[in-house]
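Try it yourself: sequence plus uridine-5'-diphosphate-glucuronic acid, in.
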Amino acid sequence: MIGLGYLGAVHAASMAKLGHDVVGVDVDASKVEALAAGKSPFFEPGLEDLLTEVGETGRLSVTTDMADVAGARVHFVCVGTPQSADGYAADLTYVDAAVSELAKHLGPDDLVVGKSTVPVGTAARLADVVAGAQPGAILAWNPEFLREGFAVKDTLHPDRIVYGVPDGERGERAAALLDEVYATPLSEGIPRIVTDYPTAELVKVAANSFLATKISFINAMAELCEVAGGDVTQLADAIGHDARIGRRFLNAGLGFGGGCLPKDIRAFMARAGELGAGDAVEFLADVDDINNRRRARMVDLATEVLGGSVEGARIAVLGAAFKPDSDDIRDSPALDVAARLGQLGARVTVTDPEAIENARRRQPQLHYEQDVEDALRDADAVLVLTEWRQFRELDPVRAGELVARRTVLDGRNALDREAWTAAGWTYRALGRR
Ligand SMILES: NC(=O)C1=CN([C@@H]2O[C@H](COP(=O)(O)OP(=O)(O)OC[C@H]3O[C@@H](n4cnc5c(N)ncnc54)[C@H](O)[C@@H]3O)[C@@H](O)[C@H]2O)C=CC1
Ligand SMILES: O=C(O)[C@H]1O[C@H](OP(=O)(O)OP(=O)(O)OC[C@H]2O[C@@H](n3ccc(=O)[nH]c3=O)[C@H](O)[C@@H]2O)[C@H](O)[C@@H](O)[C@@H]1O
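Structure, out:
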C-alpha cells in the first residue's frame, strides 16, 4: 500500500483484516511511526480499533522504504492528487514519483492498482511506465468511493467495485487477481464493474461531480428561498420524496469542502479542456461558484446580525473540520468562514471535537478552545458551521447562559429551530426564513 493517508491507511488495515499480508509505505515518517505503534495518524471512526485488531495478527507492517514492497504481488497506489498550486489541474507529482519508484521493485507477475483519483488518461500513461520497467507486470485502475467519517465501513462494505483493466488476457488476469484480493466477505453481493481504463477513471470523477452538483443544486434553491421567503429544508424534504431525486445529499447550508469534491470538479474541468471537451463540463464552474457563494453569504449574514460590521465582535465558530466525524480541514468551509471573519476584525474563537490541531496549524491567528462552553462564553454570535453531534445536541438554554447575545447562525441547518427560538435565541439559517 503506497501512501498511508485517509485512503491508504484505511485500505491497508482493511486488506489486513481480510487476511492479506500488507506492507504500507509512506514518505511521511510521522505517519509510519504512528501506524507502527498501532495508532491512527488522523481521526477516523473505527480505524484505531481496526489497527489494534490487525496489529494482533501481525499482518500489517509499515515502512518508509519503498524497497520493502519487493515480494508483494499487488501494489495499491494511494498517494495524494491535490489541486496544483498554479491552476485547476491535478498535481500528479506524487503519483508519478510513487509509480517510478515502485517500478524499480516490480516482479514479473505483479499487479499495480491505482486507487488515487486521477485525470482520465493517467492510467494508460502509467501502464507504459510499468510495462517499460517490468514487461510481465500489469496495471489496473480501481477507484475508491469511501467517505471520510465512514471510511472503514465504506471500505469493507462498498456500494460497488470498479476495475479498469487492459484488454485481453492481461486484463482478465488483473481482474482475477483483484477478485482474489477482494474475496468474500468483502465482495459478496456487491456489484462489480470491469471496464477499460478511461471509463474507470471517469466513473470516479463523474460520481464526485454528480454529488457536488446535487449539493450545489439544493444550495441554489436555498438562494431562491432566501429571496422569495421559502424554506429550503422543507423544499429538500418535498423533492427528496421523489425516489428519482432522493433526499440524500440535499442538505443545504455552507456547501461542500474537503480534500476531494472541490479539487476533483476543478481537475475534471481542466482535463476536459485539455481533451477539447471543456464545454461538456462547463456547468461545473457554476457548481463551484454556487458553492463558494455560500461561504460569502454566511459572512454577510454574520455581518448583518451584528449590525453591519463584525469588527471587534466576539464570534464563536462551532466546527473547523470540513464535515463531522473527521479531523480533515482541507478546503473546509467552516475554517474558511472563520478565517474571513477574523480578517474582517472579528474576535473569532473556534471549537471542534477533533480538528483543532490541524486548524491551528492552518490558521494560527484564530483563537481555539477545545471545550464548546469555553468557546461560547461571552459570544456576540454563535455560528454552527460543522454539524458534529455535540453541536446538534447542544442545550440552547445552557448555551444561552454563557453567551453575551443569543444569536445563532445555523450554517448546516442542523439545529432544532423551535428549541433554540423557545430558549430566547434569534435563529438565522441559510435558505430559511
Ligand atoms: N480521502 C478520501 O476520502 C478519499 C481520497 N481519494 C483519493 O485518494 C488519494 C489520496 O487521498 P488522501 O488519502 O485523502 O490523501 P492524503 O494526503 O491523506 O494521503 C496521501 C499520502 O501519500 C503519501 N505520499 C506522497 N508521495 C508518496 C510517495 N512517493 N510514496 C509513498 N507515499 C507518498 C503522503 O505522505 C500522504 O501520507 C487522492 O487521489 C484522493 O483524491 C479517493 C477516495 C476517498
Ligand atoms: O473522492 C473522495 O474523496 C470522496 O469524496 C466524498 O466524500 P467526503 O469528501 O469524505 O465527504 P462527503 O460526505 O461527500 O461530504 C463532502 C462535503 O459536502 C458537504 N455536504 C454533503 C452532503 C450534503 O447534503 N450537503 C453538503 O453540504 C459536506 O459537509 C462536506 O463538506 C464522496 O462522498 C466520496 O464518495 C468520495 O470517495
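One thing you can check immediately is this: Residues 202-433 form a domain with the Rossmann fold fold (CATH 3.40.50.720).
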